[in-house]
Amino acid sequence: MEDLCRLPGSQHIMRILIIKTTSMGDVVHALPVATDLARHFRQKGAELELDWVVEDTYADLIQWHPAVGRTLPVAVRRWRNAPFSAATRSEWKIWRDSVRGRRYGLVLDLQGLIKSALLSTQAIGPRAGFDRASVREPLATWAYGKTYAVDPKLPPVERVRKLAGAAVGYHPVGNPVFGLRAPPDPGGEVCAFAGRFGEHAFAVLLHGTAREEKRWPDRSWRALLELFEAARRFSILPWGNPAEQARARALTEGLRYAQVAPAMTMAEVTWLMSRANLVAGVDTGLLHLAAAYGAPLVGIFTATDPRVYFPDWLVRAEAVGGVAKPPTPDQVRSVIDRIGRWH
Asked: Would you give per-residue pLDDT tens digits along the chain (343 residues)?
């Protein structure tokens, strides 16, 4: 209902708090909601003040969207390891005071978990979320004053768009628009590393994942890299922890055209992907972030359904593989040849 979003005492300022904390892919999928809301209220001649609660790891990502005003980072993953420590209690109080510093016309939980529902109760304003048949954790619905039915079989990006539209009073139309600002120029070591490739085309290959079932076998990655080597195509392998770094070094050993990236922040790897001639990788948050920037994209699926989790609205994007159907290196190479901007 649109009246839920009307700030008390004003007919022209709409103040909304979104709660979507994790994971990276889920947060990326929710970004078009900010675009939809901004467009809706602009068409209504109203001003939108949009705040967002997100895990501190992804705070920079939220700030890249021009429609988001305040980012209110939480550290639930860290807090739950020491819930009664002085540091946790202090950080929680600071966050709670910050979120209670404004009265919202709508507090919208796009996560649908008990933890996100609990966070929503700390904000001042009417709360809304998925109904019991749609939500991921049904107990979360106790926190909402309004609930809405959304088909749980829809792709995640469409689920959150439809929930926001139902709660505010509009129907999302068209393909999702992420509307992110260009990632900042990193300078320093990362810029120098990218400069090694000069005018040569290069691919960013996302091999790392926290979920073992999503991994593509090392032998398959090595075979793909050898195909790149034979074609004299440069590839870059980012990494996010020492184990992934060691894996990248092993995969590229003895290869001239495959390079292990230096340590990079999320902003830096995003900058690199936005300049790549191709991004190929397993089903992770970085793959979806590359999609948000419209990079030529190849998704390598081994444990999840690409019909649900791959961005079919992109022109230069294709998925290969599926649930319990990891693709072969030749299959991936064939798709890469169609998608990559090599000339």
From this structure: 444 455 454 557 899 999 999 999 999 999 999 999 999 999 999 999 999 999 999 999 999 999 999 999 999 999 999 999 999 999 999 999 999 999 999 999 999 999 999 999 999 999 999 999 999 999 999 999 999 999 999 999 999 999 999 999 999 999 999 999 998 888 889 999 998 888 899 999 999 999 999 999 999 999 999 999 999 999 999 999 999 999 999 999 999 999 999 999 999 999 999 999 999 999 999 999 999 999 999 999 999 999 999 998 888 999 999 999 999 999 999 999 999 887 6
In whole angstroms, what is the distance from residue 115 CA to residue 87 CA? 19
Quick one: CATH architecture of 2-168? 3-Layer(aba) Sandwich (3.40)
Look up the CATH superfamily of 188-339. Glycogen Phosphorylase B; (3.40.50.2000)
The domain spans of the chain are 2-168, 188-339
> 264 with 289: CB under 8 angstroms?
no
Q: 278 phi and psi, to 5 degrees? A: -165, 140
Alpha helices (runs of H) in the chain, residue ranges in sequence order: 24-43, 59-63, 76-79, 86-99, 114-120, 156-168, 188-195, 218-230, 242-252, 266-275, 285-292, 306-309, 329-339
Name the token pair of 136: 């991921």
DSSP states of 268-280: HHHHHHHH-SEEE
